[in-house]
Amino acid sequence: MKVRVAILGASGYTGLELLRLLLRHPQVEITALTTRRDESPHIAEVHPQLTGQLDLRLEKLSTAETAERADAVFACLPHAASAAVIAELMETDLKIVDLSADYRINDRATYENWYGVSHPDAGRLGKVPYGLPELYREAIQGAKLIANPGCYPTSAILALAPLLQAGMISAEGLVIDSKSGVSGAGRNPKPAFHFPECNESFSAYSVGTHRHMPEIDQVLSDSAGESLEVLFTPHLVPMDRGILSTCYAMPTSQTDSDTIHQVLADYYREEPFVEVVESPPATKQVTGTNRCHLSARVVRGRVIVVSVIDNLIKGASGAAVQNFNLMHGLEETTALI
Amino acid sequence: MKVRVAILGASGYTGLELLRLLLRHPQVEITALTTRRDESPHIAEVHPQLTGQLDLRLEKLSTAETAERADAVFACLPHAASAAVIAELMETDLKIVDLSADYRINDRATYENWYGVSHPDAGRLGKVPYGLPELYREAIQGAKLIANPGCYPTSAILALAPLLQAGMISAEGLVIDSKSGVSGAGRNPKPAFHFPECNESFSAYSVGTHRHMPEIDQVLSDSAGESLEVLFTPHLVPMDRGILSTCYAMPTSQTDSDTIHQVLADYYREEPFVEVVESPPATKQVTGTNRCHLSARVVRGRVIVVSVIDNLIKGASGAAVQNFNLMHGLEETTALI
Amino acid sequence: MKVRVAILGASGYTGLELLRLLLRHPQVEITALTTRRDESPHIAEVHPQLTGQLDLRLEKLSTAETAERADAVFACLPHAASAAVIAELMETDLKIVDLSADYRINDRATYENWYGVSHPDAGRLGKVPYGLPELYREAIQGAKLIANPGCYPTSAILALAPLLQAGMISAEGLVIDSKSGVSGAGRNPKPAFHFPECNESFSAYSVGTHRHMPEIDQVLSDSAGESLEVLFTPHLVPMDRGILSTCYAMPTSQTDSDTIHQVLADYYREEPFVEVVESPPATKQVTGTNRCHLSARVVRGRVIVVSVIDNLIKGASGAAVQNFNLMHGLEETTALI
Amino acid sequence: MKVRVAILGASGYTGLELLRLLLRHPQVEITALTTRRDESPHIAEVHPQLTGQLDLRLEKLSTAETAERADAVFACLPHAASAAVIAELMETDLKIVDLSADYRINDRATYENWYGVSHPDAGRLGKVPYGLPELYREAIQGAKLIANPGCYPTSAILALAPLLQAGMISAEGLVIDSKSGVSGAGRNPKPAFHFPECNESFSAYSVGTHRHMPEIDQVLSDSAGESLEVLFTPHLVPMDRGILSTCYAMPTSQTDSDTIHQVLADYYREEPFVEVVESPPATKQVTGTNRCHLSARVVRGRVIVVSVIDNLIKGASGAAVQNFNLMHGLEETTALI
Questions:
Q1: pLDDT, tens digit, for every residue of C47-101?
Q2: CATH topology of domain C151-311
Q3: Cα distance from B46 to chain A (closest Cα, Å)?
Q4: B222-248: buried (b, 16+ CB within 10 Å) or exposed (e) per residue?
Q5: Domain boundaries of chain B, sorted by first residue
Q6: Which residues on D lie below 8 Å from A283 (Cβ)?
Q7: Contact D199 C199 (CB under 8 A)
């Protein structure tokens, strides 16, 4: 029997990517797509790529209607809006993957400070597994609600967590210089993402103020076993998709490239979606896949780890399906290979 | 003594390109920049590219104030808005280059039908020279007001007008298949020009309905000496700037590539900005310049002329400066080479 | 039981795309990858995208070795080289999809004239089905060898064949103005495809001389029931993948957009991969899929059909898998949705 | 009287950019273009962008011929080849700007170690001014030979040198994470720069091994007054031109964004080509110009300076013209604004 799936907020890029993946999932039936607007466009009007592939309209559904139509929900809603809806959905039998940031931050004050809003479901903070199976697979398997990670955090955490856990690098002075394709900014037209503005240009943005910084802090602190603060700088690359993070760290004792490579390779040996490779990777190696490629070097006494993911897949919708598979006891890689 | 220049509507891409060209013009002093909004941002806030190069703010100026501050005006306003302002400016001593479409169409009904608005200065239609020096240099030299051509029309007319004038090709059955970079769509963010929508994509648009079609009809009819209608199809190329038009025509008698090449080369022999080249040209050959490159072939009995221009320069701001130079008796190529 | 598949010449873009599709094919086991070079690199060295997904090396295999290792072959070899190998493979039990141009042209003189080589297996010309299921499904189903269509021809033929078959458009004066992403040029670095040369540029090439022109002639002549010659002009778009063809035709009698739309929609009603859509399509609508989107308009008495495909999938590897499925009696859409 | 200029090795991107700039230079006459090949193509065949603008052929010239034809030389030759030629040219009256790396490194062993060749003119090392006018204007003014800086070093040094000179940041632990457009890789087609390989992809390369690292070390050591070693990681951005460097440093005492901003602004107050701006800059702000935009932030106790330049202009040919102007006692900004 198939799992009936609803997607809340299906009109953006993560929604489209989820639909593409789920249409290939043999144990899934997509039964509802919601919108917060009053119009009910056919999904092929919203995503012409799906013409002839899915005959559903976007609908404005109540919690009860959603619960009746589906067994599981992917929530692709803006922050704060997401937790408001999920607080209600938690009263039903639905299993939920939340792709917003609402349940990623354990500390209410940190969330409210960085996101500038009051949390609509603050009581649940700290109790929702962070949906990075490579770190928290067991907690995900039994969960009813998962906080799907941010795209930048996924790329940075996969690069650094094993080295922090192994005590190979210092928790002090971590620098994460990240670069993302423009789809990470979402589908709403804004001046900064108007084609002739960002095409043929490369820029830094949100220097010191990006909301993914406390998320990275939190998860890497957990890996390090001590509270740490990273320096995270995001940049905009004139391409559709892909994130590359160049991570700089001080080793705790003298080391070399091979040793660091080996620690990472050992950590990810059984992982279906993480590869530790020799050459510095390009984002194109993982475009369209749920994979992360990592490469490490020791240069002038410091450790450099480069990681690449597809921001819309391993950084969003692919991870969401991976979590969905785990939550439902399905083969973890279904629809992802 | 320098010509004092005002730019009306300086915040778009044609405004920026005009400023870049005029900042290099030894006989020009830029004295005013206008906006129709209430804010008065510094030009470096609007165009960070100009930081440190021009110390002016955008201002909301009356006609009288503009006439006091400047000797000449470049109007980069939307259609209809432009003619409304220019009707007033014509009462002053200012010389005016209008970069909108308002004075390009000679026939009022055609204008109002294609642009869907009532013309605010219809009495002047048909009396304003069309600012393509390669066809109408004499009329431009004595003019007070010039209608600066559209970008697509410039590329198509330069390719076909000499062959029509020479009677080498039929006025019947002309097909103009044009491709433009995204800056041609202006600087206002819209879904179609959101980076992840149009990047890595190529599309046709406004098939059979683009407003440059009657403009091409009109000028090529003049060249042919008979009324003609072209089939014009624009397409969007994922790049900043450049237009390539592939033009298909029936020869009036049997001909070959060399003959057609020669007619074009003879026509443009003295022109400073048009080159007839052997190989099919790429838009990049003319990016950032006021030049047009043309190449012709006869294939299976039909004539194919390919033309390339930079849509923002020869297709807009460069042509405007070329017209300005002619109107003011300056060396035609000043600031353009 | 799975079909054991060998890919001859797996190091290019069509090879990579084939591998991606076949790795998802439940009835396929990839058992051999060949190269004509002496080195035997691991496939992950050739295509880092496949790291961790396929553990095979490229090998130099004889015909006998290939026949022993596989039940079916996809040949991604250069023209002439392909037919030389296939002539031998036809002596074995292998089923073969040839992605080269070698068996597409029925007439030996035409082939040798356009490709500039002697055909190594000329006796078979005219007896090999052209692998466009939308036109020749029955012939494909029983075949041992299929000539997989060229990318440009696929986009042009799907747009025009139904209208020619229905007698709606004239066989005279067809103009096909096509635009392709750069992957269509293959994986060998050449000056024209060096990033800073073709990025931010759009160009026409091979005007009147492209080898896909006689291929289009041949298939559309078959559809028209009379010998015809098209005017075909290819252009290079600064993007990875996608072809858009803008096709111009004279209707045989007065008609309108709805009528043309309907003829196309009726023709493709049962087709799993062709959609007739309302708005002029963008290549991005079909990127990464085996689909073709078509849109038609009648403008100023002439018919314009715009078609889009992914040149590497519906234009090459996807069509090859579709043909493979038909040849082996498998569900036609397997691995393609 | 004009300075007669020869360009050695005019067929690459720096050669093209030099020609564009020098064609606008009122005190320059371009009199010779050299090549090391036997063919003598017209410059318009090599750079179609220059059609109709410069009527010269590339020639194989001896030192004596060059000295006869020109008063000044720009050498755009590969490393080692450059110094071999310049060693001879130094015997003539020519003034020389060397755009290669040959005279940038003062220490012979360092040069030979990083460049892997024996230096053909090692005796001159350490005596040639480094052509960054913002740091070494006086030395440049009297010079006969200038070592034009590397593109990455220019972007990094302009960001960090004033802070090191002022003692605001530590010489320890500098991280320079740089991103460059593809034109920085030159005009020779290679697999890594084949359009479908690097388009829509972002990658790190030469991690810990890039030859610009010792060049940055050397100049920043000079600014710091002590020997230092930076961590420099270059990345490839899918765009034509532009470099952005994100530079991380430890302040020597507690500081804030405004203080750092002020030190930089004060340092560059009189500089015609460096602007210290508020918002993190985008490379597009300086594309096509000789300018550098800088922006600074203090985040979590560390200093981040972001700098942008056009790699072909301020990072190569524009700087070369700026140096040329200084060497010849011309207005420094001629042809550059």
A1: 999 999 999 999 999 999 999 999 999 999 999 999 999 999 999 999 999 999 9
A2: Dihydrodipicolinate Reductase; domain 2 (3.30.360)
A3: 12
A4: bbbeeebbbbbbbbbbbbbbbbbbbbb
A5: 3-128, 151-311
A6: 201-203
A7: yes
